[in-house]
Amino acid sequence: MIYEMTVQVRVTDINEGQIWYQTLLNKEPDDVPHAGFAEWELVPGCWLQVAEGVPSAGSGPIRLGVIDIEAERDRLQKELNVESFEIHSRAEVPVKWATFTDPWGNRLGLFEYLSDTEKNERVQTVLSKTSCSDIGG
User: Fold this and answer.
1) What pTM value is reported for the model?
2) CA atoms within a 13 Å half-sphere pointing along the CA-CB vector of 36
3) Rounded to an integer, what distance in angstroms lies between the CA atom of residue 111 and that of residue 134?
4) What residues contact 83, with CB distance under 8 A and at least 6 apart?
C-alpha cells in the first residue's frame, strides 16, 4: 500500500533555492533536516524536497493544483520573475494547465479544474485527509 510520496528537485544553491520555493509555495519549509535540503508538505502525505545538487535535465513537470491559474501566473511573474507562460486547455480535458521552469531548469507547472464543483470537491477531499486512522496510524 502506498500512503505517501515525495518528489525532489535539485538546485545549485540551496539558499537561493529555498527562498525561491518558499515564495512559490507561499510558506516556509516544513522541515530542514540537514544542510543542503528543505522540504514542504504540499498536501497531507505529499512532500516536495529541494536538495542542493545538479538539476536533472528533462525531468518533470511537477504540476501543482491551484484555485485560479491566471492569478497564480501573475503572482509568479511578479514575485519570482518567472517568464511569461501560456495557459492551455482542450475541450476533452477537465483542467487548464501551464508549464514553466525554475531558475535551475526544473520543469514545474500549474493546473486548475474547469468545473467549480469538481475543484471544490477535490479541495474538500484533500482537506479531509488529515488523519491516519484509515491506514492504521
Assistant:
1) 0.83
2) 5
3) 28
4) 77, 100, 101
Phi, psi torsion values for 121, nearest 5 degrees: -65, -45
21 torsion bin: left (phi>0), alpha (psi -120 to 50), beta (else): alpha
Integer CA distances (angstroms), 36 to 12, 19, 24, 89, 105, in order: 10, 13, 18, 37, 18
Q: Mark residue 105 as left, alpha or beta (left: phi above 0; alpha: psi -120 to 50; beta: remaining).
A: left
Ordered structural domains, the chain, with CATH: 5-130 (3.10.180.10)
The residue type at 112: E
Return the axis-axis angle of helices 69-80 and 14-25, rounded to nearest 10°.
150
> Nearest Cα to 51, choosing from 31, 71, 27?
31
pLDDT along the chain (137 residues), means of 10: 89 98 98 96 93 89 94 97 95 94 95 91 79 46
Q: Copy the grid coordinates of residue 26.
A: 507561499
Counting every residue, how long is the chain? 137
List alpha helices for the chain, DSSP H. Answer: 14-25, 69-80, 116-128
R_g of the chain, CA atoms, integer Å: 16
